[in-house]
Amino acid sequence: AQSVAQPEDQVNVAEGNPLTVKCTYSVSGNPYLFWYVQYPNRGLQFLLKYITGDNLVKGSYGFEAEFNKSQTSFHLKKPSALVSDSALYFCAVRDIQGNRDDKIIFGKGTRLHILP
Amino acid sequence: SAVISQKPSRDICQRGTSLTIQCQVDSQVTMMFWYRQQPGQSLTLIATANQGSEATYESGFVIDKFPISRPNLTFSTLTVSNMSPEDSSIYLCSALTGGTEAFFGQGTRLTVV
To answer: What CATH number does domain B4-8+16-112 carry, 2.60.40.10, 2.130.10.10, 3.40.50.300, 2.60.40.2470?
Structure first.
């Protein structure tokens, strides 16, 4: 079964500084990897995904993520943080094996605080 | 992408009663899921709603407590049965489009008193 770990409950970054939110995963097949963001009292919004190909994927709002197969990681990054990036971020994984189409499992979430 | 509408957006229910949550997608989708989320916490998968067959439940969730219907490729319902205060949570509907990423409804905030 697949699993996702987000080791940090909270990340604090000063506005204008680069940010990284960490994620590691475990699958038995090939991973589809995702990042979602949730603002207060809102649903989850899709940010970006890795399916195959280039290890660096770009998504919404200037976010990007780097897939590292050897470290089984998929860290979320942004070169320059904005106060409006403050939210709850979830890493998620699907375990793709052959024709079996599996569910999406979420990490526990990391709360990102961007300090003005 | 897909637009997912959930109803109701919130409700306050008496213990022992049942609530049915509806999820409507604006296009046909391959898979639909139901999650539960405590505010500020992670999402826990309840079940996969299968079109034309019984839902697939995750460990800790049973059909008698959370019956699910999916009569077609755009609609699903989740019923929370015989509610107790422990069922107070946010319930989220999700749909897979194009076989890759999932999209989410705005959620149903349920309070059981």
So the answer is: 2.60.40.10
